[in-house]
Design brief:
- With 282 residues, the chain is of the alpha+beta class.
- The protein has 2 domains: 141 residues, no CATH class; 101 residues, Calcium-transporting ATPase, cytoplasmic transduction domain A, CATH 2.70.150.10.
- Helix content is 52%, strand content 16%.
- Strands 1, 2, 3, 4, 5, 6 and 7 form a 7-stranded antiparallel beta sheet that branches.
- β1 and β2 form a beta hairpin.
- It is rod-shaped, with a radius of gyration of 29 Å.
Amino acid sequence: MLTEKGAESPLKILLAQLTDPLVMILIGAAVVSALLGETKSVIAIALIVIANAALGVSQEYRAEKAIAALQKMSAPNVRVRRGGREEEISPAALVPGDIVVLEAGSIVPADGRVIESVNMSVQEASLTGESLAVEKSTDALVNPATPIGDRNNMVYMGTSVTYGRGVAVITATGMHTELGHIANLIATVETEPTPLQRRMAELGKALFFLSLGIVAVGTILGLINGGAIQDTFLNGVAMAVAVVPEGLPAVVTIALALGALSVCCTAARSSGNCRRSKRSAR
């Protein structure tokens, strides 16, 4: 069976979202707005922060969802030949060397070498992206480096038998299968920030230090002119808040979402899925 990477706690993910420099500035702006009695500003900023945090947390679960989807592709049960008779067992009990019986409608439970095939065809789109089923045979491969999609004497975990029947000897199970390799890559990948995200992080830090400088200068000038320390401090903070672009995080999130949608549509255009989705939306 495929193993799943331990997920981070929702609290940890949420804290990571709230420690973004721009978000921290927005939180500070909300606090100052509350002290100044600007209720509408507090509500608007709070909604922006909550929306960005929610979108950010949802992105963190994409890898887990992908793993879950791969898990569902595993067979619920499998027919094997052991001790001269057929029996039905859980895929988790499979070991290399087991003889698996496959027929139309079967989900291949592990990687295996085909030893019997009666017009057996297997749908391997989950691994190769090829929409047409592949006819399987018992013929040996001439080139050991043959790509997965051309290995007609092999069956792979997560694929499905669409026609005929056959028998295969298991060569790899669980995370050692080709599907397991994909699951492992998904579980261990570390998402690199995009150039836009890196620029936004730099801008957030610059705005943070600029805000601190404005507060300090505003407070000092107010004290020099004989103002009360509380009033001068609040005035300095108010000027710092005015520098903060409250809508910028939301704009960045929307821009990234639209970019992702564009990439998905480009990838799906060959099959016409994007066009059908657009027509349905209309």
